Structures are given as C-alpha cells and as structure tokens.
# Entry
Amino acid sequence: MSPFELAAPSSIAEAIALLEEEGARPLSGGTALMLMMKAGVLRPPRLVSLRNLGLGKIETGGSLRIGAMTTLSALERSPEVRNGWPVIVRTLRRLSNVRVRNVATVGGALAHADPHMDLPPLLSALGARVKLVGKGGERTIPVEALYAGYLETTLRNELITHVEIPPLGKRGAAYLKCTTRSADDWPAVGVAVVLGDDTRIFVSAATDRPTRIAGEAAIAGLKIEGDLHGSAEYKKHLVRVYLRRAIDEARNAVH
Amino acid sequence: MRREVQFQLNGRDVSAQVAPHESLVEVLRESFGLYGARESCGQGMCGCCTLVVNGTAVSGCLYLATLAEGARVDTIEGGTELDAVQQAFIESGAFQCGFCTPGFILMTRQLLDEQPDPDDEAIKHYLSGNLCRCAAYPEIIEAVKLAARKRRKA
Amino acid sequence: MKRATQSTETPQVGRSVPRLESWLKVSGRAEYVHNLRLPGMLYGKIFRSSVAHGRIKRLDVAAAQALAGVYRVVTSKEVREVIPDPYYGPAFHDQPILAIDKVRYVGEPVAVVLASDPHVAEEAVHLITAEYEELPAVYDEVEAVTSKAIVHEVLRPAGTFPDLKHLKDRKNTNVALEFRLRRGNPEKAFQDAHRVFEHRFSTQQVMHTPLEPLVSVAESTESSLTIHTASQSPSFVRIEIARLLGWPENKVRVRVPFLGGGFGAKLYIKLEALVSVLSLITKKPVKISLTMEEQFFTITKHASTFRIKSGVSKDGKITARECEVWWNGGAYADIGPRVTQKSGFTAPGPYDIEHVAVDSYALYTNLPPAGALRGFGIPQLVWAYEGHTDLMARELGIDPIEFRRRNLLREGRPQATGTVMKDAALEKVLERLETLMDWRTPLNRGTGTVKKGRGIAIGFKACVSPTTSLAAVNVNADGSCIVYCSTADMGQGSDTAMAQIAGEVLHMAAEAITVVHSDTDVTPYDMATLGSRSLFHMGNAVKLAAEDALNKLNVLRKELGLPADCPIPDIFKKKYGMQAGNVSGTGSYIPSYKSPDANGLTDNATPFWMVGASGVELEVDTETGKVGLTRLVNVADVGTPINPKIVETQISGAAIMQLGFTLHEKMVFDSQGQLRNASFAEYKIPGMLDLPASMVNEAVVAEQKSGPFGGKGVGESGTFGVSPAIANAIHDAVGVRLTSLPLNPESIWEKLK
# Structure
C-alpha cells in the first residue's frame, strides 16, 4: 500500500473541508477502501476518517433513521430493526462475513456503488432515502438516485450522514441473491421486492446499478453483461427465476 | 511518518510506533512478536488475520493499526491456560496445518458469547467467513458444539 | 501439561492420538516460515511479466533503484554473475531463476526489488518498466502438440529422470515427454468387440492455495547457506541449490518448520533458488513471501484432455482400452513429466483389461507452470475413466456398480503395466460404498423442478517409485526418545504418525516422543513429502531406525550383564557412570522397483496402491442448474490406519478440497493469457456453507503387508472419485452429461433448456 496521511475530524463541516482536497477520500468501515488500496487500484494521499462525527445512532419512531456510521452488525442486532424491518436482518445474515459486518457501515455500503452488494437494492426497494451533506448544504435523495454506474455515484464531494427508511408495516418484503460458485461469493443476481400499493422491485448484481423494474416484462430490456459469474443470457434467466421466487417469499413473509 | 499509538494488548497497556498504512497484523508481528494472526488472502475473506478489537472480531489485515488507538486488542496469545474452545479443538481434531486455527478459535469464542447453544446452521453461517484449505470444517463444527457443552458445564 | 509416561504396553499404532503439536497450533505459536524474521533481513518483491510469450527488449529498473529505502534491484544479469547457468527443475532444467531474454507466461518473475520495508519494495516494483517483443502464444494442451508457437527452443532434461535422456537437445516441439504403454493387441480387440465406446473429457487449471502462501528465507556466509523454507522436499532443495552453486551438499542447510498447508505446491524449487542467490549477492538475509495472488503465478494443477475408448464384450467385459491424455504443463515442466508417466500408466483405471494402449503427453504452453497437486494427475484420469464407465454402463443397461464389479482388478491380476495387484482392496472398497450408499434401494428422483440423483466412482493410484527415505531414532540417557526425519508436517499428521510408529517399536507413548523437524544438517535424506508416500516409506524407515535403536539397547544390556527387562536409564548409568550418552538407531528404506520397458510394461511398477471411491446423492434445481449435495460418502483403502482419527480427517479433507475443484474453482484467462481471477474474491474455494448436508468417511479393514504395521498413505485417496461421482449423479438426476470441469450451474442449465 502506498503511504498516506490519516485525518480524524470531529465535525462534519471539518470533514467536508478536508475532502475538498485533491485525492482525499472518506474512510468509514474501511473494508472496501482497504481492499482497493491494497490492490493499488486507489492511491489516495489522504484518508479522512468519519468515526468521530457522531453518526453511529439508530433511531426509530415510525421510520427507521440510521446514522451512516452505524455498523452492519449493530443494524443486524438491533431489536427495533428485527421487529420493524425483519427483511433487513435476514439479508444481513448472508452479507459477506461477521468480521466485515463488524466494521462495515451502512453509509459505506451505500457509497461504494458496487452493484453486487446487498443493501443498495434492498434499501431502494424499501423506499429508503439518504441525507447528504456537502459544501453547498444538505439534500435528501432516494437511495437508488445515488448510483450512476459501476462504482460510480452521483455524490458531489458529499457525505452520506443518515439513511431513513419508512415503516414497512405489514407489507411483504424479500431479498434473494444467487451465487453460482461457492456460497460465499459475489452474487450473479440480486432481487429485492417490497409488495404493496406501490410494489417496488429492484434488480442488482447482474445490472451495473440497482435497477427498478415494474415486473417480469421489463427484464428483457435490462442491460446485462456476462462475467465470471455467468453469461448475459444465463443471468437474464436467473433474474426471471429469482424475481418469481422473491415475490413468492415476500408474499409468504411473516412479520 | 510514524506516530505513537497506545492501546491495550491482551490486557496490558502498550504502545508502538506506527505508520498510517500499516495494518494491525503487521504491527503485532513487527512490534510485539505475535504471529497468531496471519495475513493470508489479504482481502478479509479467509479469517487467518482475525483479531478482537473492543470485543468484536475484525479482519486484522484490513484494520489500520492507527485506528487501534485507545482500543482493547485481544489476540490468540492472550490468556495463560487453554480455554474450553481451544481444548475442544484439540479433542475434536479440528485442525490440520493449523494456519487458520487461531482465527477459527477467536471467531468461535465470539459465536458462543453471542449464541451459547448454536446448531449446525448457526455455526456454519457464523464461521462462513473463515476458510480452511485443509477442509477441517466437519471437525470444527463438532469442536464448536463440544466447546458449547464444556462452557455450559463450567 | 500432563507428561505422558514414557514406557507403556498400550499399542501406539491404531490409537487416535491427538496431534503432538496441538497446543502449538491452538495457541497460535506453531512455527511457520511465514512468521520468520531475521535481523538485517531484506524483503524481496517480484516484478513479473505482463505478456504470455515474448522477448525482453528493455528492462528499466533505474526509477525503482532510486526510490528512497530500496536496497537493490536484481535482474538475471546479477543472478548470472553468481550462478552462470541458473536453470532448475526436477525433470528439466528449464526454469530460470529470473527470466533470461524471454518470458513464457504472464506473471513470470523478471526482476526483484529488495528493501528492509516490504511496502517500499512493493512501491518500487510499480516503478519498473519492461518492453517485450511479443511472440505467438499457445494455451491449449492439444493445440500445443502441433502449434507453431514453441515455448522452449531446446529441451533440457535434468539427470534426475534417467529415461528423459533421449530428449536432450530436442528442438521445435512443445511435447516435453511422451509416455507410451502397449499391452496385447488393442486394434484387433476393438475390431472383435461387441460394442466400442469413445468419449472425451477435460479438466481445468486450478491452484492449491495453501493458506500459508509460498515463502522462503535465505541467509548466507561466503561459503555456506541456510534456507528456511516452507517446503515439502528439503533434501531435494539442498541437492538442487548445491548443484546450482557448484557447492558440496554439506554447505547448504535447509530448515523446514510446520507448513501452513502444502498440497504439492511447496515442492522442488519454488523460491529457494531466488532467495539464495539474493542473499549471496547482498550478503544479507533475504525473505520472499508471496501474496495469495502471486501463488497463482507460481505453481498450479495440470489442466488436461483425455480421449478414452473401450471395447466391450457381449457379457459386459472391457476387453480393450485406448487412452490418449494431454497434460497442460504450462511454461515450465516442474514435475509434470512424472505426472505424465507415473499417473499415465494408471489411465486405463482399476480394471482388468487385456489389451491396452496409453499415450500420455506432457505439453508446454504459455500458462503458469503446473506441477504436483494432491492426487498428482489421478483425479484428472478418474474424472475421465469413471465418467466413461458410467456412460458405458448406461448404454449397456447394466447397473453402474455391477458393471464395475464385473471388470474390477482383483488381487493377483495384472494391471495395465503387467504389475500384479497386491493389497489393493478395490473390491472391498466398492462393496462398502455400495452398502453405505444403500445402492440397492431405488431412489425417488422427484417430480417437481428439483430432481434428485446419485452416482458413484472408484479410482486408484500407484505410489511413485523408486524413492528413498532414511530416519534416525535416538534414545537418551533418561530413556526419552527423539525421531529425526525430513518428512514435512503440512497438516497430514506426519509428526504424530512417526512418533506412533517409533513408540510402537520402543513401547513408549507417542506423546512422550519428540519429532525433530526437517533440518538437512540433522535429519537424514528423504525423497520428499508427496504422493502419499511418507507413511509407507518414512514410516518403514522410522520403524527400522527404532528397531535398530532397540537392538542396540538390547546388545548393550547383554554387554553390561544387565537383565533383559532392565530399565533404559539404568543401562546408561552402568555404561557411563551417570546420566549420559545416547543410542542412535538408523533406518533406510527403498522399495524394490523395475523400470518399465519400451512398451511401458514392468512387473514391479509400485510398492503399493491407493484406492479411493466416492458416492454422491444430490439435488439439481432444474430452473437454475444449481446443484446441492445431500450426501457425500468416501471410502478408501489405507491399509491398517495408524491413527484412525487423522485418517478419517485426511479422507474428508481431500474430498472437500476436490469438491472445490469439481464445482467452484477455475483459473480463468483472457485471450492474452492474463489471469482474471487471482484472488479469493474471484477464485472461490470451499467454505463452511459448501459442505454436503451429510458426509461419511471410512477406511475399509485392510492391510498393506509391506507397510509399517500394515499401513500406507491416505492423503490423496479422498480426491479420486469425487468429481465423476458428482457428474454421474447429475446425469442420473436430469439426464445431462458434463464432460469438463468445473461443473457450474450454467453448464447444466445450458443442456437442460
């Protein structure tokens, strides 16, 4: 890994100012970032740690309000999340491994923009919104609006500070993924479904970003490329199969 | 640029000179001669580098040593006697080359702290992030269950 | 820690003694070269070729050399100042320590940066630039036979294989070796056969990925060298390094503590020559510790293509078999020629076939080198012949087990080479498998989208021969015992097994015995820890050494006029007047062997056979092609198990490893020979969640009469039948036959849709 400087600001304003500097990158859990730095893919001269910004709280009261620095483990263990949004806990159980979940954060998981990840499509389907803070002020956008493409976000030197998830209520929800090699693998296909008056379905992994579809008919039009997990044709087929299975599971989900 | 980092290591207050890019595994080896945590896959997927920081298991090869400032770090070398998990691993023959073993033991301790009586499914899920190329997995599952029984007896 | 009593009447063999090194491994204190740090040590990081085949036009290391903290950058130019002819290899001296003039695969080492901070060394590697004149490359093993892309201009067989001499100076070919076997008259037998079947199978390139990646450290004086290395073959390392330097063997010392896995990757020369020459150049200790990624560019398993043809009589007997096997050896031969020959002669399978033709070719290609990997070519062969067996059985309408039973080699019958089968419990293993699989009970394959199926397969291996093992056993003045042997404990439990064998002879508890790890200044010669040979060869040597020590003690007793049951400490007290002295026993074991003739025939091909069979029950999700194993049964013939618990875990571990090679693992290259998945993120080995729902592992009751206390090796036997058993089960479930590995869901779905 190439040498770098590590800053640990104690306010969001300070953090944003530090991130204005050329090449500086935010450090949340550090899992994805460390991997890219070790591989030499990223060589930032400065990392800005977000751990002292007080963004680690989970608040409920109708909606679920999660500070961006909340670890995935904390989310997995939260009784409020288990009761109100059990699909999140079920999904986290199969997300990477325990050690990763112990340090990876919700904000980091959303900001990395790797389409193979589990939280972006699930939170998109749940209608979650993220609060962004930058030099120009604050704004709130739906999770799916974060993504411009593979590893590309629409963030303009902004930090995700919170994620807000509306109540799930009695709506059926499911997230299914299909791995084509060992069980602990990046998925070939991920499908998140939340049923209701406004059914929300998001396809991921096979697409370059979480992509909303209205139903099976839209699958033919999805832009899917082949890779080590499968050919484009096979992945398209898997999307069809897993969409049907996710809808079934969502229908049968018991709260 | 090296900076002094102070933390608690296996219950004792220590300090080390650390460069920002050095991982916790590197610092434990270079400055403290502790080799139980090993960098193998380098990607946090195999668990050979497992360390416990502030009571939670982390991948030491991806954990910047600087971030251990003020933290409690526990390694496999901590403790003076073999605990129930270590004894269970021995009795169950739950290792072959031994390279992944410290990682499995630390993860098993965490698992049993959280779930004192896990079934096979719970064990497999919790340990899915620890790889063993010798494939001692079946014996490891038995060892975890044996350790759970030993802990209950004590 | 409880001290075990030294003398005991409890038999040590047949005991499931917990591994002697248990405390070390569970407390994280076991010694691995991965952990080794020496004062003043430099770390080496390797700059590697980015083209698959090319002449090196320019190599620019100036910027790397100038980086603050870099000690030195070394290329083949500096290497040749120390070693003028720096080519090594067990079969061919074809591999340069650092690339000279040409590179032959993407990832080949071209230069090394040395620094006391490994991060600095790594940074500097990125500053090295090279320009290549690209040459046409070849990647496929069958294509390599006729390809105009020639990997090595001239062949350079080493002296170690006497039967390669005729290949010296051979030019313009990628065929490094051809093994040929002919018995009877296959052509006529095919003409006379009732039915003739022919199939083609292939396997993929994979990597061992031991969790302790390859690592070596060398320290030197002006006339001696110590190499600390994670190696399964310390004696070979000593001989080969001494040869390269033109030094006597006694000036090269090779030390091996525990290995964090080996599986065949850590054999012959990997990093040892490089660290040695770097230490001699810098006069400092030098360590090169590969990353997981770099292992893929160092040594791998042969991909293969196997064309197999059989003639079958009306009553379901195989009368003729023709085997053509192409082994993809990659850019350097490593031990590929031995795989080609020694596994090649078992290509016809464990079947009693009168007329046999085998042609087995070792090919050079522009891929990372292939060498020994658990099974040593056998899994690739069994993959083909057991798929072929099943296809024939189906066609003929004969039950797969019954068809095998009709044709299996029995005790006393000659195998394809003409060597008579002895102590190979093929029939017993097949029978036991049939019982454990409940084969006679019909299986309900299901009517929904998930279909069930089951399959079996049986394979065998001839232990490589002739090989030598020596051991020494010391009994100390207090009666305690030390065993010295150069077998490397890489997790297979060899330390424990050797202690049990010595303990059995000396009536001592295995736990009380100390086993000294490989140190070529101390432990005697051993061919290597490979091919499941150590329990048999080194076990016999240790047994002989312990018997020699016992004998010497008895002689001493007599000389000193002491009674036959006099305790050992009293012998020494009487002899030396105090607690002093020791008795040294030595043992040397090399089995008899006869070289094959020009037709590949010999009546003494091997000192023992290994047998392994697997049965699988699985489910196929016909909507996705995904396979889930509900049951995996592995049965092996290991002779008399020295340590039953360790034997069981060896069968199990080998089978699970082979599961990975069957279902998940494949090195994927692009059209330029670049590896696309050299990391655990994209090269998936089995984890906890990949285990079959249920596993049974058994060793049948058997005896290897020439083995120590009836035992023989087990490390590889669990690999033999797994792949074809799964393919046979998939065929049983959904009627889809896959003939190349790995068996991924898409390839099943492709055939189903």
Observations:
- Chain B has two domains: 3-74, 84-153.
- The radius of gyration of chain B is 16 Å.
